[in-house]
Amino acid sequence: MKATATILLAAAQILVALPSLAEECIPCHREKTPAAVRQWEQSAHGRKGIGCEKCHGSDHEKMKKGEARVDMKACAPCHHKAYEGHRKSRHGLGLHSGWGCTRNMDGRSARECSFCHDKESAEPLSSVQCARFLKQSSEMGEVGCNYCHSVESSCASCHTNHNTDLKIVRDPAVCAKCHMGPDHPQWEMWQTSQHGTLHATAGATLAPDCQRCHMPGGSHDVSVGITMSSGGVPYPPDKGAPQREEMIKICSQCHAPSFAKRELTRGDAIQKQSLTIVKEAESIILDLADRSLLDPMPENRPPHPLSGKQLVLDSQLLYEDTSHIERLLFKMKKYDYARTVKGAYHQNPAYTHWYGNAELKMDLVDIRAEASRLRKAGRSGGGADKGATGPEERLRLLQRRLERGGIGQAEYEAEKKRLLDEYLGVKK
After folding, report:
1. Per-residue model confidence as pLDDT tens digits over 29-56
2. Pick from 356, 341, 284, 336: which is nearest to 313 by CA?
């Protein structure tokens, strides 16, 4: 509380001098950036005399070089509650979850270091990295990745740069910029659900929108009520159960609590069923890797930006420089699994079934067929899979499973003994 009071007092002291400082910027910027000036003049900031320097600072040379971007910390002294809610939410990890360390990349920008390291101490702020970002050009990283992921550090991601009209951020369309597309089409799911249809025809008094469910009461903690990670992995009960209770409270603004609980429980079941399909696909690909049948194998293709010449099937799975069967798994996990599960929780039957579940199951058909083709090619070509049913090969595959963590030491020893006994004809 004392620290908060100090911040607010400092902000109030600065505001006394701001009108005169703003007057130095306005004449030039009314000519150079007239729209920005108009928006500021019509905003709550402009009406209260909160000048340009309050957010942008006073180093004009840095501004011209693009080195004085307005960070959300500039908003924190006056909007402390929103700042703290945002920081602890999933939006507060937006940039880190979409970025990755660029220190080994050609042509990197030095300012990128500040995304993950404290400017004063250089201490890392996060251990999260994104392999997919690291494979992109700097232009694609900026436009295709960070226009959305900069939500972590920029309030303007939702509020825009100089407007303060709350109508902008209360419109669910403001969420669509990022929450759409093949991997997380929440906007399309909501828009074409019963909730979205009623909202479009009768308004927010009859049907909920993104903000009502995910920012209840104006909260900036958009993670309230969410029971799984952004990759669709369920939270453990001690973390998931309290969040589920929060979501039931939100749903109960319109529905009976028993109805809300039943619908959410059905979504949980669909999530578990879908994850079972994904895990089967992963086990197929891991078995192919054990047999050296991926085409190409990790050691024969460009290195993974985080793991080098290793097989990666987790959240850092790539959609480029992989084998065809891994590309099928990427579609299954990143697109179809996500659409199935999020479609169920967003009450959209078409996304749950046809865009999600049906595609998920057809992905598995394709992965099984591709695995069969690779095994046949390995046997007919004299590859590593030739004679895979022999004892030596079975022991080698067992060793590989142990090395990649597919089985524990005790299970390895028991299965190894069973195979040797079988080979030597030992009777039980």
Report:
1. 999 999 999 999 999 999 998 989 889 9
2. 284
User: Could you tell me the two tokens for 61?
Assistant: 């040379």
Question: Alpha-carbon distance 155 to 180, whole Å?
Answer: 20
In angstroms, what CA-CA distances link 199 with 158, 180, 259, 264, 293?
21, 18, 20, 21, 52
Q: In this structure, what token pair is assigned to residue 39?
A: 């928006």
Question: Residue 371 and residue 178: Cα distance in Å, rounded?
Answer: 35
Instruction: Look up residue 395 and give its amino acid.
Output: L
* C-beta neighbour count of 321 within 10 angstroms: 14
Largest Cα–Cα separation, the chain: 95
Residue 230, CA distances (Å) to 91, 97, 225, 253, 416 in order = 11, 10, 13, 25, 38
What ranges do the domains of the chain cover? Answer: 264-424
What does the pLDDT look like over 344-386, one tens digit per residue? Answer: 999 999 999 999 999 999 999 999 999 999 999 987 765 555 4
User: What's the pTM value of the predicted model, to 2 decimals?
Assistant: 0.84
Under a CB-based contact definition with an 8 Å cutoff, are residues 29 and 36 in contact?
yes
